[in-house]
Automatic annotation (TrEMBL):
EC number: 2.7.4.6
Enzyme class: transferase
InterPro entries, per the entry: NDK-like_dom, NDK-like_dom_sf, Nucleoside_diP_kinase, Nucleoside_diP_kinase_AS
Top-rank taxon: Bacteria
Annotated source species: Desulfosporosinus hippei DSM 8344
Pfam families linked: NDK
Gene name per UniProt: ndk
Self-association state and partner proteins as the record states: Homotetramer.
Cofactor(s) annotated in UniProt: Mg(2+)
Active site: 115
Family statement: Belongs to the NDK family.
The protein's name: Nucleoside diphosphate kinase
GO MF entries: ATP binding; metal ion binding; nucleoside diphosphate kinase activity
Localization of this protein: Cytoplasm
Family annotation (NCBIfam families): PRK00668.1
Length: 149
């Protein structure tokens, strides 16, 4: 079963969108295997966005995810990484499908509500960055047999 790292960014927490977004993941069929509210410090923020170091938006983006608490989560399911990215929508809310999370709740690329891993390798890296193995819970969820063959 695939796992992906999802983070509700500071704007999601401040705007009271946490429950709404979690509900979208639950209804889609994902299984929650880890979750915590955290204040991201600079070391972690820079590590998270390491691939963007040197770009113009690096420092503002790092500053933004440190600006207020975030909700870090791991969601599991068949093809979880790609399906979560679909549910989130394009990076820039101006181009996001209107039914997607960023399409529904976002206005600007620099305040786009949610982060999700962009590949299996990123998911493994990001999960390890934010969670200890014992913070992730492997369990059977009722109804799993109705989600796929
Ligand atoms: P994340 O899930 O947050 O990683 O978004 P993403 O994978 O859809 O986009 P990417 O990893 O390319 O960029 C990371 C974050 O940096 C985005 O979510 C944006 O908030 C920000 N960002 C990316 N590109 C731009 C840009 O061109 N301008 C600005 N202002 N911010 C950007
Ligand atoms: Mg990304």
């Amino acid at each position: 079963e695939e796992r992906t790292f999802i983070m509700l960014k500071p704007d999601a927490v401040q705007r009271g969108l946490v429950g709404e977004v979690i509900s979208r993941f639950e209804k889609k069929g994902f299984k929650l295997v880890g979750m915590k509210l955290i204040q991201v410090h600079r070391g972690l923020a820079e590590e998270h966005y390491a691939e963007h170091r040197g770009k113009g938006f690096f420092e503002p983006t790092v500053g933004y995810i440190m600006s207020s608490p975030v909700v870090a989560m791991v969601w599991a399911g068949k093809n979880a990484v790609a399906l979560a990215r679909e549910l989130m929508g394009a990076t820039n809310p101006a181009n996001s499908n209107p039914g997607s999370i960023r399409g529904m709740y976002g206005m600007d690329i620099s305040r786009n509500v949610i982060h999700g891993s962009d590949s299996l390798a990123s998911a493994e890296r990001e999960i390890a960055l934010y969670f200890k193995p014992e913070e992730l819970i492997d369990y059977k969820k009722a109804g799993e047999e109705w989600l796929s063959e």
